[in-house]
Amino acid sequence: MKAVFLDRDGTIVEERGYITVPDDVALIPGAAEGIAALRAAGWKVLVVSNQGAVAKGLLTEDDLSQINLRMVALLAAAGAQVDGVYCCPHHPDGTEPEYAIDCDCRKPRPGLLEQAARDHDLDLPECVMVGDTARDLEAGRAAGVASTVLVLTGHGPKTIGEEHGADHVAKDLAEAARWIAARAV
Ligand SMILES: [Mg+2]
Ligand SMILES: [Zn+2]
Question: Among residues 38, 184, 40, 44, which one has the least CA distance to residue 123?
């Protein structure tokens, strides 16, 4: 089974620093369109997100679930569906002892992608990672995905000036989806 892994903030949801309440969730133009196109082309779509704000005590895991549900509802209203949402609540500099760890799931490490791969029976060498920062793409490479796409939403315009190693650069998720769907994988 092949999947596209999507970063959340700056890729699907407008980047607003730490999002701590559902009302702060707004979809980036093209995000729902891109997700719907990927699923129509036979890809699973899995969201993989660093949410170190939990470790910093800015929100609880329940708050985070409510925020993710808001994103899912907005996507559904726009005709798009995701197959799963995976978040890393940890941060090595966190203030909440149970979350202040050097975990394996915080991107650029591949733990979230590997967990999703186990849950959804994915073949990681057939998967694609899409994100707006270099560490998203690094997590994809660490997990062994086929290719990585940098989107120029969120932090993308800054990332393009860094060492990012993306196989493709897309204006937004809709354009990323067109590139991915056109591939022979
Ligand atoms: Mg991001
Ligand atoms: Zn983690």
Answer: 44
Identify the nearest ligand to the CA of 105 by its number: 2
121 is catalytic: no
CA of 112 to the centre of ligand 1 (A): 14
Active site residue 83: no
Helix H segments across the chain? 31-40, 61-77, 111-120, 134-143, 156-159, 173-182
Centre of ligand 1 from the C-alpha of residue 171, in Å: 14
Nearest residue to 180 via CA among 37, 33, 25: 37
- How far is 52 from 117, CA to CA, in rounded Å? 22
> For residue range 46-92, what is the model confidence (pLDDT) as tens digits?
999 999 999 999 999 999 999 999 999 999 999 999 999 999 999 99
- Residue tagged active-site, from 9, 132, 136, 172: 9
In whole angstroms, what is the distance from residue 65 CA to residue 70 CA? 9
Domains and CATH numbers, the chain: 3-125+139-182 (3.40.50.1000)
Ligand at minimal distance from the CA of 9 is: 1
Residue 61 and residue 54: Cα distance in Å, rounded? 7
